[in-house]
Amino acid sequence: MSNTQDHIQDDNQIDSYRRKLLGGGAALAGAAALGSGVFFTSIARAKPDAEPASSEIRWGFLIDTNKCADNCDKCVTACNDEFNLTGFGRPETDAQWIRTVTLRDKKTGHTTKLPLMCQHCAHPPCVDVCPTGASFKRPDGIVLVDKHTCIGCRYCMIACPYKARSFVHETIENQKEYGPRGKGTVESCTLCVHRVDKGEIPACAEACPEKAILFGNMNDANSDIARRMASTVSTEIRGDLRLDLGVRYQGI
Asked: What secondary structure, in 3-state letters, does the chain show?
């Protein structure tokens, strides 16, 4: 009985979030007419201010690994705090939207530490394999998961080359209104879409003490991130897959 109540509570929290995103009864009626599956996806794609995401924008990160300190995990802590990604004492099942990894050059032994999260691919494998359309990419390049159409099959987790997605095994309490989570669904870095749609930067970039994580519009030639990418060499992890990543790295 308690499991059923927990499930209903999770659904109600997500429903409340989605209704607020719609921002009006007329929009709700129009979306509902499309059918239940399209209804939820349409809400998830909408910006809180009701302005559609634009394909003229490509949000992304440029991460300078030369600035990443070996003992620093401020970006991870900021993400966990932003979305209340509380651990349940089992690291193998805890959600992890961003993690730090160490790369080692087999020839030289040189090691490089870097943060790794959803790479917000232009051609995301997770979207390709999703049987329900729960995994989708907004026109501005942000890859998201619609929690109401996700059936927890975890095909996207298998397809992701970066192991960037987590499955929610536990009932989630104290959720953030802007970041609904649900037991039995898959989740990953949202690029802090709730912040981005208000003109703010993601929590990880804001928290980085060395300003190693540069966020911006990669399509805007005058943006800091575009100018940096034009003047310095940047790398895509597993660039051989030709996924056109929204996260680029310097120093690797």
From this structure: CHHHHHHHHHHHHHHHHHHHHHCCHHHHHHHHCCCHHHHHHHHHHCCCCCCCCCCCCCEEEEEEHHHCCCCCCHHHHHHHHHHCCCCCCCCCCCCCCEEEEEEECCCCCCEEEEEEECCCCCCCHHHHHCCCCCEEECCCCCEEECCCCCCCCCHHHHHCCCCCCEECCCCCCCCECCECCCCCCEECCCCCHHHHCCCCCCHHHHHCCCCCEEEEECCCCCCHHHHHHHHCCCECCCHHHCCCCCEEEECC
Return the structure tokens found at 38: 């399209």
- Model pLDDT, residue 49: 53
pLDDT of the residue at 21: 37
Q: Cβ–Cβ contacts within 10 Å for residue 41, how many?
A: 20
pLDDT computed for residue 20 by the predictor = 40
Q: Which domains does the chain have, with CATH numbers?
A: 54-250 (3.30.70.20)
Residue with tokens 């912040």: 195
Mean pLDDT, consecutive 10-residue stretches, the chain (252 aa), reads 46 44 34 31 41 88 93 93 81 82 87 94 97 96 95 97 93 87 94 96 96 96 96 94 97 88
CA nearest to 76, candidates 98, 94, 54, 106: 98
